[in-house]
Amino acid sequence: MTSARWSWRRMPAGVSVVVVLAALLALVACERAAAPDHSAALGLPPLAVPADNPLTPAKVALGRKLFFDRRLSPNRTMSCAMCHVPEQGFTAHELATSVGIQGRSVRRNAPSVLNVAWQKRLFHDGREITLEDQIWGPLLSANEMGNPSMGYVVERVRGIEDYAGLFEAAFGGEGASAGRIGAAIASYERTLTAGDSRFDRWRYGGERSALTALEQRGFKLFSGKARCVSCHSVGERDALFTDHGFHNTGIGWARTYLTPERTRVELAPGVYAEIDRRTLATFSEPSVRDLGRYEITLDPRDRWAYKTPSLRNVALTAPYMHDGSFATLESVIEFYDRGGIDNPDKSALLAPLGLTGEERAALAAFLRTLTGSAVAALVEEARRTPSGR
Amino acid sequence: MSNPQRIRRRTIAAALAAAFAGAAFADETCNSPYTARLIKGQEDYVHVWTLGVEGVGDGSDKLVTIDANPKSKGYGKVVHSHSVGGRGEAHHMGFTDDRKHLWAGGLDDSKIHIFDVGTDPAKPKFVKTIADLAKQTGFVGPHTFYAMPGRMLIQSLSNAKDHGGKTGMAIYNNKGAFVAKYDMPEGEVGVVKGDGYGYDIAINPRKNVMLTSSFAGWNNYMMDMGKMVKDGEAMKRFGATMAAWDLKAMKPKQIFSVPGSPLEIRWSLNPKDKWAITATALTSKLWLIKPDGKGGWQAKDVATIGDPSKIPLPVDISISADGKGLWVNTFMDGLTRYFDLSNPEAPKETYTKKTGKQVNMVSQSWDGKRVYITSSLLANWDKKGDDNEQFLRAFHWDGKELKPAFEVDFNKEKLGRAHHMKFSAKGGKKT
Questions:
Q1: Under 8 Å between Cβ of B180 and B8
Q2: pLDDT at B193 over 80
Q3: Short-list B236, B140, B231, CA closest to A110
Q4: Does A288 touch chain B (CB under 8 A)?
Q5: Nearest to residue A96, comparing CAs of B271, B400, B232, B334?
């Protein structure tokens, strides 16, 4: 698949994609497609859109409808949006790791789909490389949306009255197919642009007062003493806050080898009890191992390595890490300050940092400046038209 | 408010007002006060709403009917079973006010299956399935089915937007048509903030009060319980409130802080009493809801159930017809406990028996002489391996000892997970 490069900043005056899309939007009286907003992309690199799946308002609107439609699971309970909840940063705050159809357990935390168009590899283990293909992972996984086959999903969509004519309108007269379902959902996801944070306006927009002194100190630590930038990259012209790489921090290893004898459980605010391992086993399904990137590459060096997530909008996407094991940004910073968890394959980039309390607070303050300006609008748009309850 | 909405509200209010005139206190002790044809004698059948299990029998949710009359040839046997297709997390049921139909809900697929149990209770006849709850209301997980005059009030547990605990109630008419919806209270009502969660409903018509309790959303009740207790985020998402509503207006008047997820609510069936009781699942307490002396209500922690540090997980409760006793099942330790409620301010546990490796629902006959227990809590919360007993166990209760009467092994019979029970009698002759 070839890609056309779109640049929000470099388009000739008067020919910007926004203008083109705005013209297209005017033709669609009842559906306002979520065209990427020029200002919302400040600080993001040019968006790559596959040449064979150009963004159009009709396709974006159709993709949005599919994304929120619970009828895309056999028992009509699960949609993409049940784990990527708009009001929860397009992830899920209320679960460390996801729960799929009929309550089946998913091993990992739902990543946010904000700015997902800029991800080079998808899923925590990086097993997919295009949004068009990625959507079929959750649609077909037995423990996520649980559809038995692509054909089943296509037939289901073709049979739903309120999709009549929508695929034809979006795809030049062609009806629903596996490829076109993927293309539509990918198109919607590409519009979830959430740059133009206060950090972006400070670093790339020339607004020197956009960050407080504490937040600026946090960025200095981020790119200096705390060494966060080693993996969460920040460029001169833009920043994705990820190196697109895979790293072993020790969390996955610890989950495999360090099973606690007792589990502390919060029964109500401030009320705790402990459950011993034997009792816990009486009502627990067998645990399923998670070896991270190794499951894809079979390279022992990739054991318990997971993709570096972008830190954009990180204030909105708790809980953190691939297993949602940290509830707050402060606890993540403390983890890295300790140097992660030692294990044979731990990333060489991790070592104790020796941060002071003030430095940790500055880092947390900086991370909270990375929230994009368009998130509220994306949430509002997502809920404007109920889909497939 | 639009005209249709106004007319609908007025119609509901009129129906509620009409209900006050003839409301009698409840059925086999735990049903709506509006339910007619009380069975005070021997029940003929126990209907068990049963969760399908993949690989067990037909794997489908089903309504299982068991002969419960000792004088019958089929006593203690399954006499009928109707599968509804699929596994939708079968959970609770409720009679319509005329007791002719039984509404049975699925917490996962949000379908509501209606059975005719009035024509021939030995063979409940499937009538129809309501499948528009989420479309009409945005709520999912229909839990409590509470009869109103000509209508059914349904308490949901979750919502279709995020599968969290914010939810509400819906009213359908007895034909299955949607009438109205009510969100559970959020924000401050009085001095306590509502959490928007829901679980059970209990109405006292004479006091014009409806009590509601709070549990958790789809994410939690559908999740493997072992996974959930290790998930700190999930454990923060349990209800911690009860609400007292103005019944006629269907508006919340007070919110009570009741931490640890208050579940079933039972008003005392003694007409002289003015209190209700509930149990908190996670914190293992009994809470009393009583007048506050200022024209309102208050919630008060009055007893501990077992050792809360061991999380016995009190689940279903069943109050005696005279309001003097309460059965409490604790799921984790498989114990059925009897609390003396002579002084509802200080309930005392006076009898305890291990009735299974896991126990959830408990229902007693009106005369209190028979007690029925089933095993399943939720498909993914039930115990695993040998501890996953699935049964209906019937006992005789003489005030001192629970003595086994009969048992149906739902695993052996390849039926599934035994959950909620309702009683019926032939032709209503014993009412």
A1: yes
A2: yes
A3: B231
A4: no
A5: B232
Query: What total number of domains does chain A contain?
Result: 2
**What domain range includes position A67?**
3-195+373-384
| Chain A residues within an 8 Å CB radius of B313 | none
Between B81 and B30, the more confident residue is: B81
For residue range A9-32, what is the model confidence (pLDDT) as tens digits? 333 333 333 333 433 333 333 333
Other Cβ atoms closer than 10 A to B54: 9
| Alpha helices in A191-322, H assignment, sequence order | 198-203, 213-222, 251-257, 277-282, 294-297
Chain A residues near residue B236 by CB distance under 8 angstroms = 94, 266
Distance from first CA to last CA of chain B, Å, rounded? Answer: 43
CATH number, residue A315: 1.10.760.10
Using CB atoms, pick whichever of B230, B234, B259 lies closest to residue A269: B259
- A94 within domain boundaries: yes
What is the pLDDT at residue A387? 73
The predicted structure's pLDDT at residue A259: 87
Domain annotation covers residue A261: no
Condensed to tens digits (0 to 9), the pLDDT of residues A153-191 reads 999 999 999 999 999 999 999 999 999 999 999 999 999
User: What is the C-alpha to C-alpha distance for residues B388 and B83, in angstroms, rounded to an integer?
Assistant: 22
Which residues does chain B have within 8 Å of residue A105's beta carbon, measured at their own beta carbons? 223-224, 227
A281 touches chain B (CB under 8 A): yes
CA distance A200 to B46: 66
Total residue length of chain A: 389
ipTM of the complex: 0.90
pLDDT tens digits for range A326-345 = 999 999 999 999 999 999 99
